[in-house]
Amino acid sequence: MSQGNHQNADYIVVGGGSAGCIIAARLLQAKAGTVVLIERGDRSEANPETLSADGFKYAFANDKVMLDRLSIPQPECNGRTLYAGSGSVIGGSGAVNGMVYTRGDKLDFEQWPAGWQWADIEPAFQALEQGLRIRHREGTTFTEKALAAAEAVGFKRKHGMNDGALCGFMGYNDMNFEGEERRNTYTAFLREQMNNPAFTMHTKSVVHKVLFEGDRAVGIDVEIKGKRQTIHANKEVILCAGALETPKLLMLSGVGPADHLKSLGIPVVKDIQSIGANLHDHPNVAMFYQGRKPVDFGYPQVYGFDRFNPDLPLPEGQADTCMAWMSAPVTMQQSMRRMGPATMLKGKQFFNPVLRFLVRTAVIIATSLPPVNRMINNLYGIVVILGKPLSRGTLRLASTSVKEPALIDLAYFRDPADMDTMLNAIAKAREIAAHQGLKEWGNKPLAGQLNSSKPEVWKKWVLNNVMTTFHFCGTCSMGEEADKPVDTALRLKGLKGLRIADASVIPVIPVSALNAPSMMIGYRAVDFILADNR
Asked: Are the C-beta atoms of 270 and 494 separated by less than 8 Å?
């Protein structure tokens, strides 16, 4: 890997996450030219937990590898500001997540444009899986009881959820790990290119804007370890900064809704109204239950999918909800260290390091007390994840500074049908938890509201407890329609030399986790780049 200050490169990849790492790796493998990768976070090796299969819980709690953000107050969620962070390190969110690998349902991709159906994208998934070496973890006494309870209320059992048929199944999900190592697009593909003389990687570096000459992207204005400089792109700039950073960077560069840009004094390069629109995510609630003995599984390894709202505008047999089983002893302390400050501190207070330190210290002390610790060791959860939300939010700039978080409106439950789906799914999760096998294990709800049989009581609990599943997407959607800013070869319409390849291009969210689709988008981006340059 070249350490020099390349002032130009054939390809500039902005964002070293799940998509960016595979794009850089494949361009280098294809000998397509020189590649510069810019990442806001640090190297993975500086944060070894991001490389370890068992380190996901520590990575999630580590401020050095997460970029924190809060939403604007959400009127549908009692005015709460909701956490909207993401991974900021080489590997991106794929370096801090639970390593869950699910392609999605075939029917999910029928909602995507032509050229992105199951048959079109399956070869990319297969190529990724060969490098990632995906597999599922072995079951335990508890996970087998959980699956038996799900089967008793109508789920069918299936191990590995990557055949494109998810609805009605629960089983051991595939995960991208091997032995003690996390396998993501950095460890599986890019790491072997690190000494390639055609490659330069800049970490701890922030792109301030994409530079244009007329309608062509010609480079970036970037701050590398505190020093501003320009890097020119001979061929393309490829944005892979994620669904909350890519549209923000475009707007800062003058590409987005013209009135909004003018209101901040940003010169308009291209008026594209839909940049920052169509923001959606998978909201979730965790239904925790108190067992009578310690939980014996440690990974998010059991997942199920089903249809709980027949009134949704989806074809029959398309799942609208995901359920995941959570082991509280493994994740609760770290999750509370991350989410506690977001729950207890409002607005600017959240970004005050002293206040955050105090909240976290209180969390660590509280969760270390022997009675609390014993309780947590016996806790398990059914996480109910709204897989096909109809609500759509927006992202807008707060200022002209790249370092100020954007104004993020997640819009959870803005469409009332989303709450109907969630409440129906909670009813099913309560049925699962009431099964004899779990009753014998212990199944006392941690939240008293879940003892109630009244959906209106659950609804109040949901609004106070809903959180992100970190599956933000849609803010630069691809499609043939005029209101979709990105074409089906991932080029930003109306501009040259600029491609977008991350979850922001997803027009409609799949019912399952987004890490595998994000990697697939990155993988296919290189096919389009090479085809265009032939």
From this structure: yes
